[in-house]
């Protein structure tokens, strides 16, 4: 062998002749079953291949591969394994010169076939399968980086390689049951087929470039479909964990996009299959950190929301196509529910991988998908339209609870959200309040307000307090009145239960801890007193339980806020009233109301002043500490705005009716203000006609002023300016749009005079 090697190295042009001779001998020996000579010839070829790296090695390789093919075609396992081992050695050699005419198609097919071997003897079967896996690994190594070779990422190759690997990954259950004896194990720590397969699969994926990810993942999806492996979830999750950890991190979003596409394609498949795909998505999103979702963030959420809506519709209609034919699949409601929960969890998981600003966008996007009662029924289902709408609202709000971030500065998000807090459905109202809590809670104080109770010393709650920032002050100035109003109107709801009052207490508590400056504290105290008045008001059709609950809520909150303000006289008054209640009317305190069997009176007709918190007394004690007494002395009146269009309207006409608000922003303090004005067609018509008339007068007056400045002599203009300076400023200011009027189309039709920028002003008028 040494002599042969020396000869081949010294005369490399003879290599192809040597290869051809050995190949011929080996073919003859295989045919004659002389397996000893076969092994000698193969070993000789191997050693020559390892030793020689000259220019003319290509022709020798052809002979070598021809012999390997001959061995692999044999039906004897030992020869197949011998041929595979030689091929693996060859695959590890880096060749200097490219090969233009070499084909590996046969090897891909044959090694894939060996991976599926069903030989009777289990040990030999395992050896053949492992040889097949190593062979595939060799083919990948040899071809993946060689641009001249047939593209290994073509579907014809991938459809053989990937299922072969997955088949061996899947056979883990069978192999684990046959645990080897300790003697065998210690004899030689062999690598199991599953470990080898996983290593080979990871290597294949690790070599995948951007354009090849799809080629590698598509056969995986097909294999899981064909063998119904989504339903078990565990194997599918394991496969995609391997994929996500093996590919380059910047390509993660491609895998997620393919999963989303596959979910869409299976939208009429059974709920267990869809739930399996969603579960895999959940795991994949968790692995592929912040960069995972890639450029199509909203597309991801759009697909998931669409699946949620489809699932709700399937559950309520009972079929995938809206019809109830006998031939359609039977839909199991509990499976659809499990799918919906999985989708909601996945939405939350995806959102948690995003930066805060993108999460805010996602929240707005989901809000936009929530159907508004009476205006946009999302899924036109003949039988159960309102029920479908309600279910979709609940599911999407549950998704928002998962997504919500501590960043509620977006007015566009807050207004539609608050509007949903006034719907008749108690479950929807509760979800909206939960979302509000998660938006406001920045220091994780929410669990400390989980129960309504009178805490004599709030230091035991260990609240995390922070100074109110300028941004917080602006937020409360902008949205404070809306929040107070919704808390007030939620307390008026007859369908509110204990969890609603507990959530409202938590909301009041978080507002006091997270966003309260002096002005906000005053408003919150006024709100608590207004809630007490609401519970006393006989005009409101509130049941006795709700009245007692509102009294208890106001008491618990005033007990909290008085300790946060640290004004001793204020605390004293609150504690005195609470003590009197404990002795005389315990059913006005949370400890007696929010229990399983609460002992409530049949009615609350007569309540003495000594068990009530007095506005005059609170104003007096807080005024001595520098609080705004004028504001404190003004009872709180909720401001009714156009947001109520979502609250309790039944018909489309009522839903779209507009509540005009032309008073100043501080109008809540004005007692004489009517809570809401009934608007009819006539009043709207008159308002439009009046506003048009006012616009005409304003235009005419401005035209005269402009004409005067254009045509009058300079002396007259100078004298006029000296007398009436404000009229000059009219030239530089666009006309004020009359607030509160519906002027969307009318401003555009006005016949404008010469535009301001084209006017010729006297020199003294221009700065």
Automatic annotation (TrEMBL):
State the family named in the UniProt similarity comment for this chain: Belongs to the EFR3 family.
Output compositional bias ranges, type Polar residues. Answer: 173-184
Q: What is this protein called?
A: EFR3 homolog Bb (S. cerevisiae)
Region annotation (Disordered) ranges: 173-194
Organism listed in the record: Oryzias latipes
What Gene3D superfamilies does the database record attribute to this sequence?
Answer: Leucine-rich Repeat Variant
Q: Which InterPro entries match?
A: ARM-like, ARM-type_fold, EFR3-like_ARM, EFR3_Homologs
């Amino acid at each position: 062998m040494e002599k042969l090697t020396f000869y081949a190295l010294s005369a490399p042009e003879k290599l192809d002749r040597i290869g051809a001779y050995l190949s011929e001998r080996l073919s003859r020996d295989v045919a004659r079953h002389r397996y000893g000579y076969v092994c000698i010839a193969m070993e000789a070829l191997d050693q020559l291949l390892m030793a020689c790296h000259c220019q003319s090695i290509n022709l020798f390789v052809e002979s070598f591969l021809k012999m390997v093919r001959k061995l692999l075609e044999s039906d004897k396992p030992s020869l197949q394994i011998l041929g595979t081992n030689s091929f693996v050695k060859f695959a590890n050699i880096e060749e200097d010169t490219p090969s233009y005419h070499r084909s590996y198609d046969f090897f891909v097919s044959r090694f894939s076939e060996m991976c599926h071997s069903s030989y009777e003897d289990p040990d030999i079967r395992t050896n053949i399968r492992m040889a097949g896996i190593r062979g595939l690994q060799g083919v990948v190594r040899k071809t993946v980086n060689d641009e001249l070779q047939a593209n290994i990422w073509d579907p014809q190759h991938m459809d053989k390689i990937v299922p072969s690997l997955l088949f061996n990954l899947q056979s883990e259950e069978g192999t684990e049951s046959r645990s080897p004896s300790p003697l065998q194990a210690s004899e030689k720590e062999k690598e199991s087929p599953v470990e080898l397969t996983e290593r080979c699969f990871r290597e294949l994926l690790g070599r995948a470039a951007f354009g090849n990810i799809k080629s590698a993942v598509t056969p995986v999806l097909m294999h899981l479909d064909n063998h119904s492996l989504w339903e078990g979830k565990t194997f599918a999750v394991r496969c995609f964990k391997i994929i996500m950890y093996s590919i380059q991190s910047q390509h993660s979003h491609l895998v997620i996009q393919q999963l989303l596409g596959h979910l869409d394609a299976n939208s009429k498949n059974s709920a267990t299959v869809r739930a399996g795909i969603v579960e895999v998505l959940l795991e994949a999103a968790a692995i592929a950190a912040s960069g995972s979702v890639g450029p199509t963030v909203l597309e991801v959420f759009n697909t998931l929301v669409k699946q949620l809506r489809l699932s709700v519709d399937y559950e309520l209609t009972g079929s995938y196509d809206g019809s109830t034919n006998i031939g359609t699949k039977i839909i199991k409601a509990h499976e659809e529910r499990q799918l919906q929960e999985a989708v909601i969890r996945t939405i939350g998981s995806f959102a948690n991988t995003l930066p805060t600003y993108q999460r805010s966008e996602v929240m707005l996007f989901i809000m936009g998908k929530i159907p508004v009662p009476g205006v946009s029924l999302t899924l036109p289902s003949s039988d159960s339209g309102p029920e479908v709408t309600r279910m979709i609202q609940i599911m999407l709000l549950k998704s928002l609870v998962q997504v919500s971030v501590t960043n509620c500065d977006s007015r566009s998000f807050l207004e539609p959200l608050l509007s949903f807090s006034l719907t008749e459905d108690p479950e929807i109202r509760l979800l909206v309040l939960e979302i509000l809590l998660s938006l406001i809670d920045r220091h994780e104080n929410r669990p400390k307000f989980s129960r309504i109770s009178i805490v004599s010393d709030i230091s035991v709650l260990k609240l995390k307090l922070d100074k109110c920032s300028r941004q917080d002050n602006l937020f409360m100035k902008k949205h404070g009145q809306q929040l107070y109003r919704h808390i007030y109107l939620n307390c008026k709801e007859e369908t509110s239960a204990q969890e609603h009052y507990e959530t409202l207490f938590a909301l009041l508590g978080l507002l006091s801890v997270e966003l309260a400056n002096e002005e906000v504290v005053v408003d919150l105290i006024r709100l608590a007193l207004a809630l007490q008045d609401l519970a006393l008001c006989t005009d409101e059709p509130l049941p006795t339980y709700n009245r007692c609950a509102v009294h208890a809520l106001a008491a618990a909150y005033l007990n909290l806020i008085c300790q946060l303000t640290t004004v001793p006289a204020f605390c004293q008054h609150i504690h005195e009233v609470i003590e009197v209640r404990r002795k005389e009317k315990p059913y006005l305190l949370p400890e007696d109301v929010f229990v399983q069997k609460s002992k409530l009176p049949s009615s609350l007709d007569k309540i003495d002043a000594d068990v009530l918190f007095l506005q005059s007394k609170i104003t007096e004690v807080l005024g001595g500490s520098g609080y705004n007494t004028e504001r404190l002395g003004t009872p709180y009146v909720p401001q009714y705005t156009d947001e109520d269009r979502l609250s309790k309207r039944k018909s489309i006409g009522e839903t779209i009716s507009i509540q005009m608000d032309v008073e100043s922003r501080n109008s809540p303090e004005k007692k004489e203000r009517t809570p809401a004005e009934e608007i009819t067609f006539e009043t709207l018509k008159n308002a439009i006609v009046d506003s048009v008339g006012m616009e005409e007068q304003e235009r005419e007056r401005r035209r005269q002023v402009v004409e005067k400045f254009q045509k009058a002599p300079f002396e007259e203009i100078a004298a006029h300016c000296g007398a009436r300076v404000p009229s000059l400023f009219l030239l530089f200011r666009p006309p004020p749009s009359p607030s509160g009027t519906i002027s969307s189309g009318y401003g555009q039709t006005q016949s404008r005079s010469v535009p301001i920028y084209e006017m010729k002003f006297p020199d003294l008028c221009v700065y």
